[in-house]
Amino acid sequence: MPSALPDGEPVPDDGSLPASALTGSADRPLGFYLHVPYCATRCGYCDFNTYTATELRGTGGVLASRDNYAETLIDEIRLARKVLGDDPRPVRTVFVGGGTPTLLAAGDLVRMLAAIRDEFGLAEDAEVTTEANPESVDPAYLSALREGGFNRVSFGMQSARQHVLKVLDRTHTPGRPEACVAEARAAGFDHVNLDLIYGTPGESDDDWRASLEAALGAGPDHVSAYALIVEEGTQLARRIRRGEVPMTDDDVHADRYLIADSVMAEAGFDWYEVSNWATSEAARCLHNELYWRGADWWGAGPGAHSHVGGVRWWNVKHPGAYAAALAAGKSPGAGRELLSDEDRRVERILLELRLREGVPLALLREEGLAASRRALGEGLLEARPYEEGRAVLTLRGRLLADAVVRDLVD
Q1: Does the pLDDT at position 168 exceed 80?
Q2: Torsion angle (degrees, nearest 10) of CA 172, 173, 177, 183
Q3: Cα–Cα distance for residue pair 200/239, rounded to 1 Å
Q4: Residue 291 scores a pLDDT above 80
Q5: Which residues, in sequence order, are CB contacts of 249 under 8 Å at separation 6+?
Q6: Dihedral pair phi/psi, residue 190, rounded to 5°
Q7: What 3-state DSSP class applies to 144?
Q8: DSSP for 294-353, written as a single string
Q9: Which of 55, 192, 337, 350 is deepest in the core (most CB within 10 A)?
Q10: Where do the H-state alpha helices sit in 95-218?
């Protein structure tokens, strides 16, 4: 089941923000994340805030229905307009995620985007992305999205091997994600991403190479590759605990990452974030860069998180409770926190170190600077950027990114 929300102070019923949250907002881009919490089935590794029809039955009634979800989410977009007041910023990025957003009708996703356009306006070069399950779209669906203003699509591929997909409880057939890329290109999408997962129990190096080759051969301009994390409470965690499938160790994850980086580089893909590769700067996911650079975004939908000017908040998780709050004219926010200057400094280091451009050494304190010098000596940071005042991970440093960043935030 989905993981728990953090603690925090109450969100005002009207969702209002402290005046300080919009100070200097003109210098920060604004994005929207739209969460669609529905899935046809629950994958064994998933602990996202998603629900199948069976899980929702009897717990939310009509309020939790997919049929009227778009209108409910549009209510929150309108609430965002009220909360942000006369903020003049057009929206720079929109990302529809889930769950499986493409379980909704294409017209629903287009109407959600239109609401953002109507309430805020879209930047001339706005990036508009939706995630998609390969089995939930066809050429007509993709064409409708493109005509409705979407210009980027991200398909969940995970693996090209059937036995790996089976362990993950993925329902699409090998080859379908690659076909989706061709269909998206034919519909007019310039930017297409494929998501991969490595380190699944039972996956071999050859399996992983085959997945990379299949993904790259399909012709996307962006690939994300994530190490499988086995979350407590998931079906996969229970299977591992019962000894039905083996746990993949960290050394295997490291080997798979090295394979990925090598194969991607040979295919003309450059890393720009530890788990993300693109063929050009234009192919990067600008929405994710908003997160990594601490910009402003409004997360609409059950369990969605938002951040504006150092205020972070999160919505109630259940679709029924979410819809009920909005129907009552109230914010669906479950809690929030006001980030201190120190919180924001630490988060900048945590997130920006993962980027190709790295993090300014000026953000580090004395102990963090000492740790950075050790990391440089150990080959974890690149020498030339360091001389220019930035901490940038080497390939070896990317393998140990979590450990490096823990030292630098001291």
Answers
A1: yes
A2: -100
A3: 13
A4: yes
A5: none
A6: -80, -30
A7: helix
A8: T-EEEEESTT-EEEETTEEEEE-SSHHHHHHHHHTT---EEEEEEPPHHHHHHHHHHHHT
A9: 192
A10: 106-120, 139-147, 162-168, 176-187, 205-217
DSSP 223: E
d(CA 84, CA 155): 32
Q: Under a CB-based contact definition with an 8 Å cutoff, are residues 79 and 333 in contact?
A: no
pLDDT for position 84: 97
What pLDDT is attached to residue 209?
98
For residue 77, what are the CA distances in angstroms to 46, 56, 72, 82? 27, 24, 9, 9
Amino acid at 404: V
β-bridge partners, 224: 195, 276
| Residue 276: its H or E element | strand 276-278
Collapse the DSSP code of 110 into the 3-class scheme (helix H, G, I; strand E, B; otherwise coil) and give the result: helix
- Distance from C-alpha of 376 to C-alpha of 394, rounded to nearest angstrom: 9
Main-chain phi, psi angles of 71, to 5 degrees: -65, -35
Determine which of 86-100, 222-236, 252-266 has the lowest per-residue pLDDT on average. 222-236
For residue 13, the Cα-to-chain-centroid distance in whole angstroms is 28
Q: How far apart, in Å, are the Cα atoms of 206 and each of 202, 209, 210, 318? A: 11, 5, 6, 41
Question: What are the structure tokens assigned to 130, written together?
Answer: 């939706």
Tokens encoding 341: 């200057």
Segment 131-147 shows an average pLDDT of: 97
